[in-house]
């Protein structure tokens, strides 16, 4: 029950945050914008990160609803390395039973550098 309520809350927050200016647009002027833009491209690519297959992202088209919405990521993962480990597939981060998220680094789906760029982008959400 709590899990369902949390998903509904995160979805509502993600939808409402689409109206508010995205932090990514503010950071686009920063010198690190290139890595963030590359991370977004990788995350939205169907042949690579494919995050939109399962997750809702504020500026993503046709998002999935299998995984949680990718919002408030700095709040959810204050330690950026833990987010990286989750995407990479470090065994101790696979604490969600029956998760459908593949371990992208462990299975060689993405390189460490690609995962780093995706995490840089996701961390702006």
Quick structural gist:
With 125 residues, this protein is mainly alpha-helical.
| Total number of beta strands | 0
What order do the SSEs take from the amino end to the carboxyl end, as H and E? HHHHHH
User: Can you tell me the residue ranges where pLDDT is under 50 for at least 5 consecutive residues?
Assistant: 16-29
Indicate the mean pLDDT. Answer: 79
Considering the protein shown, what is the CATH homologous superfamily?
Cytochrome c-like domain
Tell me the helix content: 40-55%
N/C terminus separation: 26 Å
Largest sheet: none
Rg over CA atoms? 14 Å
The CATH architecture designation is Orthogonal Bundle
Query: So what's the overall shape?
Result: globular
Strand content: under 5%
CATH class: Mainly Alpha
The computed structural class is mainly alpha
Q: Number of helical segments?
A: 6
CATH topology: Cytochrome Bc1 Complex, Chain D, domain 2
Signal peptide: 1-28
Domain Cytochrome c: 34-125
Protein name: Sulfur oxidation c-type cytochrome SoxX
Pfam family, one: Cytochrom_C
Could you describe the 3D structure shown?
It comes from Thiomicrorhabdus heinhorstiae. InterPro entries: Cyt_c-like_dom (IPR009056), Cyt_c-like_dom_sf (IPR036909), Thiosulf_SoxX (IPR030999). This protein has 125 residues and is mainly alpha-helical. The chain has a single domain, classed as Cytochrome c-like domain (Cytochrome Bc1 Complex, Chain D, domain 2, Orthogonal Bundle), CATH 1.10.760. Helices cover 46% and strands 0% of the residues. Helix 3 (33-44) packs across helix 6.
